[in-house]
Queue: 4 jobs
Job 1
Amino acid sequence: MDGCLAFLRTLTVVNCPSLTSLSLGIKDLTSLEFLIIMNCEELSLMEGEDNQHLKLSLRMLKIFNLPKLEVLPQWLQGSANTLKHLEIEKCSNFKALPEWLPRLKSLETLQIINCPQLSSLPQGMQGLIALRELKIRACPNLSRKCRQEDWPQIAHVPKIDLGE
């Protein structure tokens, strides 16, 4: 299928409990703008780690109920200039936001909901000058840290929701 998906703009993967890999090479999805992945209990998104320098066009990534996800995949850096909306929800083993997250210069909305293992933001969050909305819910350790020592990194964001 090489090249057949070059013009795909939206991909939604939902309710695939046995899916372990997105076997489509991310390198072939250069026009992809909207990626939604939900309820894929065995998927970690870590395949294709050698593709971190790709030029991708993602504008929105929503990840919901991926218990195997621990960190964001390196290939997401390929959308550093286009990604506007990132939502991570109900990922019970999600442990860390990557140190390269502040390089997502177009990021306007970041939502992290019900990721109880996540406890801190990466350094340099103040570099996300396009960020207009930060929502952190049901992440008790992260919410507490954002209210205290991480506050200077996010104080520039106009709309902040650190609800429990």
Job 2
Amino acid sequence: MPMDMRWLCSVRRFAIIGFVVVGAGADRAHAADFDEVVERYRAHIVEDIGQALAGARALRDCLATNDVEGAKKAWMAARGGWERSEVFTSGLVPELDEKIDAWPKATTGFHAIEAKLFGAGRTDVASETDALIADLAELDSKIRDMPLPPQDLLNGAARLAYEIGESKSDGGESRVSGTSLDDMRNNVSGIRQAYHTIFAAALAASDPALAATTESEIEALNALLAGPSLDAINSDRLRKSSEEFVVTLASAAPKINLQKPVLEDLSK
């Protein structure tokens, strides 16, 4: 999604404090250390994308019977699985990520359906839903055996955490459906899942104090999103917490033989 000026300023600030800006071909000499835990993580994301795909198929069934409320519930169910998966999607499958979750230029994917279904109560989104199902099915197939480099997953966790504070906290991307708060909660759930499954044990062995800090910062993000509505969220505190967490991940990376998170240009 497009960067605002705060993102540009923050990227410059993070560059000053030592973020490494490198391409996707970063040094992965130590990736083998993570092979077993990455496969455990794969099982989680297969389940999450499976949920998204099942929700999209249920959405199609509801559309066929003109069941608007059922279609909305199916869309939201699909959305939850997708949002937990964003740790890896934008970095490892960018073409599919763009088609499935394009925003704000919502001509395809979730948001194209959302605009008509939630915005106008229309069910004439069969073609968009079929395209979403096809893209999610392709992703479901890919993730079962595609490489999942730990470096890219760490980068993805940092990027997603920063998005929560910078672009999603000011209203979110699912404004028409009113699910932006759930989007962010599922994002944090996905970050927690990736961190606990892949990185937590290695960091705890290397630097227990930093591991404890990382855990507490994840829970702080989660607590800030526990309000009853998006309006009740303190966006300034959320932005600050998300930045702090990204900086902590940068500190943690060399402790587990990885490079500091890559903050790619998200304006693409």
Job 3
Amino acid sequence: MAGRIEQRLAELGITLPTPAAPIANYLPFTMAGSLLVVSGQIPLRDGKVAYTGKLSEEVSIEDGVAAARLCFINVMAQVKAATGDLDRVKRILRLGGFIAAPGSFTQHAAVMNGASDLAVEVFGDAGRHARSTIGVPSLPADAAVEVEGMFDIA
């Protein structure tokens, strides 16, 4: 039987993908006590990067928001792989977002809201988190956005 969070994902029409394998020398997640840290996830869909390029150049704000949302879906897939059950998430402690954009771009926070809004939509108050959002000149595989996370796990 699906747990509360899995039911919420189903209500939202979200199916978690198979967690992505690392593309370099790192682990997709690590745990120490109740702290789960998930490595940065890019906007993969069916094994391909769904949003490539830089915000305000090849990627619109709306597509950037969708990319951040997809990144968070991939973060949740890693959380489920690490814990076996998304209901074990007591709280999302922090999300970190990396937005590929030129130096003149200033809408990083709006883009990262795609991930943050979904976190709250899925986990409720336990999804409210601290956050950093950073503009970068490029990301792996020319991804437009990357999102990482820290979780308190029961």
Job 4
Amino acid sequence: MSIVAAFMLSSTVSIPTHDAFFDNIRQYCGQAFEGQVVEDNFKGVETFTENRLVMHVRECSDNELRIPFHIGDNHSRTWILTKTGSGISLKHDHRQPDGSDDDGTMYGGHTVDAGWEFAQSFPADQYSKEDFIRRQIPQSIWNTWHMYIYPGNFFSYRLTREGRELRVDFDLTNPVELPPTPWGYED
């Protein structure tokens, strides 16, 4: 195996702000935190304000973080942050209760700049835009997801587009009991 091939297997090239952001989240691996909606101007099919919200930094490696986002008894969502060599990818893994893929799974975005050690933004990627068109929700092609982490204080998950904003803040000062295994995953 060449030296280059061995390096690529062991580590994804990254820049300091992406590494710091990633590590700021990874330090909470194995812990769960309760959140609350601080902004939600959408009154659609599902409202987060009526349910207990818990994020669980569940699986962590040098290049990937899997963070289930539990909404009441709905254990279908997992955020997947992956170092790609050209930034960080955010995907939303959505599952059915039997563990099978939901029709609207793996949408998300990718960083387009360095961001900051405490904040990164993920504008919708091409796969997601095509999926939103297929699912007849074209307004979502303008989605940008944002994550902010201030260690020892809070973590925020935010979705923005014209006319739409959702933000959930999670209290990092008070770990909570671990939630159930997310749908489609194993212990």
